[in-house]
Design goal:
Largest sheet: none
Helix content: 40-55%
Number of helices: 2
Order of helices and strands: HH
Protein name: Fic/DOC N-terminal domain-containing protein
Structural class: mainly alpha
Strand content: under 5%
Organism: Echinicola strongylocentroti
Number of strands: 0
C-alpha cells in the first residue's frame, strides 16, 4: 500500500447521510394514522381519574424481561 498519501483526501466517498425519500405517500399516511392514535390515547388518558397510574403500568410492562 505505497499509494497512500495522507495529505490527499479521498474524494470518491459518498456524502453522508445518504439521501432517503422520507416523504413518501406510505410514510405520510402511516404518520397521520399514528398521530391520530396518539391523540385518541391522550384524550382517553385525560378522562381517567388517575392518569399517572396508567402511565406507570406502561413503564412496568416495558421493563419486563421477554
Amino acid at each position: 500500500m505505497n499509494d497512500f498519501n495522507k495529505s490527499q483526501p479521498y474524494n470518491n466517498l459518498l456524502l453522508l447521510p445518504p439521501r432517503a425519500d422520507l416523504e413518501t405517500k406510505e410514510i405520510l399516511t402511516k404518520t397521520i394514522k399514528a398521530s391520530r392514535a396518539l391523540a385518541q390515547l391522550n384524550g382517553a388518558i385525560r378522562n381517567l381519574p388517575n392518569p399517572s397510574l396508567f402511565l406507570d403500568t406502561l413503564h412496568l410492562q416495558e421493563a419486563k424481561p421477554n
